[in-house]
């Protein structure tokens, strides 16, 4: 159980960082926005290990060669939008894009949960039942997302810091993507 909880916390770190960036971007976070993002991040974090576990060894060799690139591209896409918005300067509330809606939310959900897919594949190889770990992973991701949204909201509400915080959020998303590439050896030439 302790190993499963530690694994869930480790997997939730990407969701936590992205939710902070989302809270900064929104500046004013409603309960509905928090629920949407926490629900989707938790759901995707819970579903991905189940999908990976179900797939087992049959597709592992097919996806492990590029799963890290998919995560990087998704995170980079969202990060460039945040950076572009931050460099525009002050923006109208109607201009701001809500990361808890539409394709942005789906892209973020997938990008932050791809590692959980790999965990599911790993658990299938050591014959561990997936249902309890998937539930714990999803609940922890949802809790960390909720906390991150409110932390980001506090940072984003400080008008002087909001532009810099949004830039930092974009940079953090890019850094998470680069770290995923580094962990998978895709940047071995550089590091």
TL;DR of this structure?
This protein has 191 residues and is mainly alpha-helical. It has seven helices and no strands. Helix content is 81%, strand content 0%.
What structural class results from the helix and strand content? mainly alpha
Helix tally equals: 7
Proportion in β-strands: under 5%
Gross morphology is globular
| Largest sheet, strands/sense/barrel | none
The residue ranges in which pLDDT falls below 50 over 5 or more consecutive positions are 91-95
Structure description:
This protein has 191 residues and is mostly helical. The protein is 81% helix and 0% strand. The protein is built from seven helices and no strands. The chain has helices spanning 2-26, 31-55, 57-63, 67-88, 102-125, 131-157, 159-183. Helix 1 runs parallel beside helix 6 (131-157). The protein is globular, with a radius of gyration of 17 Å. The N and C termini lie far apart (35 Å). 43% of the residues are buried. Residues 91-95 have low confidence and may be disordered.
Helix and strand arrangement:
Elements: H1 2-26, H2 31-55, H3 57-63, H4 67-88, H5 102-125, H6 131-157, H7 159-183
Helix pairs in contact: 1-2, 1-5, 1-6, 1-7, 2-5, 2-6, 4-5, 4-7
Q: Which key features would you list for this structure?
A:
mainly alpha, single chain, globular, 191 residues, 7 helices, 81% helix
């Amino acid at each position: 159980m302790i190993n499963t909880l530690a694994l869930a916390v480790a997997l939730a770190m990407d969701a936590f960082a992205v939710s902070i960036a989302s809270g900064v971007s929104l500046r004013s976070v409603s309960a509905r926005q928090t629920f949407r993002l926490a629900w989707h991040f938790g759901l995707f974090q819970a579903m991905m290990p189940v999908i990976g576990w179900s797939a087992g060894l049959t597709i592992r060799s097919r996806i492990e060669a590029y799963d890290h690139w998919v995560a990087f591209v998704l995170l980079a896409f969202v990060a460039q939008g945040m950076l572009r918005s931050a460099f525009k300067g002050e923006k109208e509330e109607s201009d701001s894009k809500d990361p808890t809606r539409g394709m942005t939310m789906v892209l973020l959900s997938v990008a932050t949960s791809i590692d959980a897919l790999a965990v599911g594949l790993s658990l299938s190889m050591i014959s561990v039942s997936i249902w309890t770990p998937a539930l714990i992973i999803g609940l922890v991701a949802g809790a960390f997302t909720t906390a991150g949204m409110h932390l980001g909201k506090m940072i984003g509400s400080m008008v002087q810091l909001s532009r810099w915080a949004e830039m930092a959020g974009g940079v953090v998303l890019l850094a998470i993507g680069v770290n995923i590439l580094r962990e998978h050896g895709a940047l071995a030439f550089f590091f």
